[in-house]
């Protein structure tokens, strides 16, 4: 286990996944803040922290559930004709459905952020909170809604990293725990950074589209899909890591250039 966690693939996957978990959690932080702000000031921080801790437990439970379903590799239905051959298993089905969900969720989020940036926030603001317990329950419900894409992203980033599925599960749990702890410690700072650089969140949503397509191709590969006798192969994770790293590097260079331009104009 330790050898796997200290391997370059695992470390890179952990860093990338933790980053994506934090980026995907920004909307979560915003909505949690809206709910917490309805309480008296002395109860807001504790409501946020308790809600996030319960959310962390909730995500770990969901990881166990999804990991169990992904481990079911035995085909339960086979399609085999002259041009198409598929051996459908629960593993392939979950990855395929997860890929479709990530593509749908990310594209709809991008559209909503461009056309109706305050739509979801207004809906959360209208919900009444009359007690501390009710606020915590709302925070847990909000996190559950936002945790689906987070869990599927974790599965997509770690699937087939190791022949032992327990290794990937431990890596996902570590990433979730680190991201939640960072959000608890630096929630306001992270939120202000994203508000000042909204392109970072757009980039995170674009990465979800990549991960969604990767999950779909991986599900086809695991189902031994053949189209006109040509088998569909899996996309190596290295391509995904390179795309994410390169995109982030370009974005940070662009941010630095914009900041330098602004300082020159002011002087």
Automatic annotation (TrEMBL):
**Annotated SUPFAM superfamilies:** MFS general substrate transporter
How this chain sits in the membrane, per its record, is: Multi-pass membrane protein
Superkingdom is Bacteria
Q: One Pfam family from the UniProt entry?
A: TerC
Q: Where in the cell is it found?
A: Membrane
Sorted alphabetically, which PANTHER family does this protein's record hold? MEMBRANE BOUND PREDICTED REDOX MODULATOR (PTHR30238), SLL1022 PROTEIN (PTHR30238:SF4)
Q: Which protein, by its recorded name, is this?
A: TerC family protein
Organismal lineage: Bacteria, Pseudomonadati, Bacteroidota, Flavobacteriia, Flavobacteriales
């Amino acid at each position: 286990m330790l050898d796997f966690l200290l391997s370059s693939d695992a470390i890179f996957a952990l860093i990338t996944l933790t980053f994506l978990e934090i980026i995907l959690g920004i909307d979560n932080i915003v909505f949690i803040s809206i709910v917490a702000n309805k309480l008296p000031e002395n109860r807001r921080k504790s409501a946020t922290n308790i809600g996030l801790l319960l959310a962390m437990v909730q995500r770990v439970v969901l990881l166990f559930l999804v990991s169990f379903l992904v481990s079911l590799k035995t085909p339960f239905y086979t399609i085999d004709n002259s041009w198409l051959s598929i051996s459908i298993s629960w593993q392939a089905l979950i990855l395929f459905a997860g890929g479709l969900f990530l593509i749908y969720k990310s594209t709809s989020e991008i559209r909503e952020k461009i056309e109706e940036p305050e739509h979801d926030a207004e809906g959360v603001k209208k919900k009444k909170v009359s007690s501390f317990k009710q606020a915590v329950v709302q925070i847990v419900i909000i996190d559950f809604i936002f945790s689906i894409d987070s869990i599927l992203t974790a599965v997509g980033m770690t699937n087939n990293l190791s022949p032992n599925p327990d290794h990937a599960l431990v890596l996902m749990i570590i990433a979730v725990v680190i991201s939640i702890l960072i959000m608890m410690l630096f929630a306001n700072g992270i939120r202000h950074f994203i508000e000042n650089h909204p392109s970072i969140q757009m980039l995170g949503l674009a990465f979800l589209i990549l991960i969604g397509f990767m999950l779909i191709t991986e599900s086809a590969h695991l189902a031994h899909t053949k189209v006109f006798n040509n088998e569909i192969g899996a996309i190596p994770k290295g391509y995904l890591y390179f795309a994410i790293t390169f995109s982030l590097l370009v974005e940070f260079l662009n941010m630095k250039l914009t900041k330098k331009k602004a300082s020159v104009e002011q002087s």
